[in-house]
Amino acid sequence: MQEIWLEAWYDIVVEGNYSARGPEGKVDRAFIAERLEGYRRRIQELRRRSETTSLRPPEGGPSR
Amino acid sequence: MMPGPARTALLLSLLVFWTACGADSRPEMIVLIRMIDQQDRWFRQKIQEFGRREGVRFHVVTFNSISDVQRMLELDARAGMGRVGLVKTHKEMLQPLVDQDLMLPLDEIFGPAQLRRDLQDYLPVAAQGGFLGNRCYYLPRKLETYTLLYLRPRLEEAVRGWETTRLGIERMLRENTVDGQGLPEGYRLEFDPNRWDWHDLAVVAHYWAQTPYGGLRVGRMAHRGRNYSGTMTELATKVFQAGGTTEDLLEVATPAVYDAFEWEAFFRKSGLYNPGMWEQRWGGGGLWKGMSNGLVFLAFMHQLDAFFIHGVSELDGYLKYPEQMETAIMPRAASLSGEERPGYGHYSQKSGWWWGIPRSTPDAFLSYRLARHITSDEFHREEVRRFGMMPVTRRVYDDLGAIFAAPDQHWMRLVFVTARRQFGIGLDYGGAPVGVRELPAHAA
């Protein structure tokens, strides 16, 4: 999961691929959402393959 | 990560070491740890003192990677040796070790009633971390969370001078983003960074980027950019600040994640981040050096980072004027479009280390007594004082003022005051929630 997230950050933020939609190269929330979709699918696939709790947060614990 | 053959060689050498540990008639136990050198030496000495009192030979073995622990325990159990009695376990490994049935539920040792009594000694936020599936497998060792770390004189310059660069940041907010609306109406930069949000970060970072320091105009705000868990944590904290949770990190297509990426892209495009983040792939050490050579004025750091940057008695720091270093809670999210979404807050990420007892321990009672001894008030207080650990026991936590009472230790106390606020145990700020959230277990 971490690798996918870091790849997304590098692609969208560092490489500036948020700007591909227009010539002005503005940061575009809608386009970021589109770019993230591919990464979302990869993480969902990873979650489907992971039958264990390895991608889940810990549960339980005493109340405060 | 260590290559496969090297790792195998390491584990084999440990196996040889373990099997060779039989010359003394005293009972033996291995304690697996990973610590900085000075702390490692101190810890070994203290463990031997405990061993002499208990009539036990303790062997302290250091692991390189937090994920090595699983293979070491499997090896120990599979070979039927059962020598490892206590393991310093990073938050990322708490769940995987339990999933593999390698760890002993602590209520099986002295019973649930005794465990409940013992857990009262620890901060609830720390004790909670040791529970998995409603059973307690770990005792707390230390907590850590990212907070804002900055150089006070540079921040004051920005607070005094930002109005001179206001038009520039307004223009950037409008022209570098499709939805950007500029600064909020009636905006003013808060003097207290504990009250900041992402607009405030943009304003000070823009002032610094436009002001020549050492003849150089460059972004002076930074976070980790190396391909490792520290960068994942940086991104996660931004999602949390935008109201996201662990589930947002897994779902990805959520408003909190979009907020985080939108602002990250804006900071990057506007030259507000120092490019060393990605060009040199800075990890924590890169940021320390960036602060040392004047390239970084503001970053997001753990409490231990603060100790390394500032320096302590046995350790030189990275700053020419360490008294300039200060900390604040994390900033709150903001909306570039002006459409603020619910849930924004001063959130960070909860991490830390816990002590776990392997199922294959040679003596569960001794393991537990050892874990309790090294988290006792006396032991814990000394370790906190010497090595800047965020305390996990109630009494030491409440005693931080006395532990760092000396005038030259005042800064240490303030680092923990900030951490306490960040954990939500201390004061709230600006009506927005403060606190920490969980990363998915084993996010790596």
Task: Tell me the layout of helices and strands.
The complex is a heterodimer of chains A (64) and B (444).
Chain A: H1 2-14, H2 29-49
Helix pairs in contact in A: 1-2
Chain B: H1 4-20, E1 28-33, H2 37-54, E2 57-62, H3 68-78, E3 84-90, H4 91-99, H5 107-110, H6 112-119, H7 124-129, E4 131-132, E5 135-136, E6 138-144, E7 147-151, H8 152-161, H9 166-175, H10 198-210, H11 229-241, H12 246-251, H13 255-269, H14 276-279, H15 284-292, E8 298-301, H16 303-310, E9 325-328, E10 346-349, E11 351-356, H17 364-373, H18 377-387, H19 394-398, H20 400-403, H21 410-422, E12 434-437
Parallel strand pairs in B: 1-2, 1-3, 10-12
Antiparallel strand pairs in B: 3-11, 4-5, 6-11, 7-8, 7-9
Helix pairs in contact in B: 8-10, 11-13
Number of helices of chain B: 21
What's the shape of chain A? elongated
Helical/strand content category of chain A: mainly alpha
Q: Which whole number gives the mean pLDDT of chain B? A: 89
Strand order of the largest sheet of chain B: 2-1-3-11-6
Biggest sheet architecture of chain A:
none
Q: What fraction, in percent, of the residue positions of chain B are helical? A: 40-55%
Low-confidence stretches of chain A: 52-64
| Spatial gap, N to C terminus of chain A | 30 Å
Which secondary-structure class do the elements of chain B indicate?
alpha/beta
- Which residues of chain B form runs of ≥5 with pLDDT under 50? none
Largest interface: chains, residues each? A-B, 40 and 53 residues
Description:
The complex is a heterodimer of chains A (64) and B (444). Chain A has 64 residues and is mostly helical. Chain A is built from two helices and no strands. In chain A, helix 1 (2-14) runs antiparallel to helix 2. Chain B has 444 residues and is of the alpha/beta class. Chain B has a five-stranded mixed beta sheet with strand order 2-1-3-11-6, sandwiched between helices. Chain B has a three-stranded antiparallel beta sheet with strand order 8-7-9. In chain B, strand 1 (28-33), helix 2 and strand 2 (57-62) form a beta-alpha-beta unit. The radius of gyration of chain B is 23 Å and the shape is elongated. Chain B starts with a helix and ends in a 7-residue tail after the last strand. Classes of the chains: A mainly alpha (64), B alpha/beta (444). The interface between A and B is large, with 40 and 53 residues.
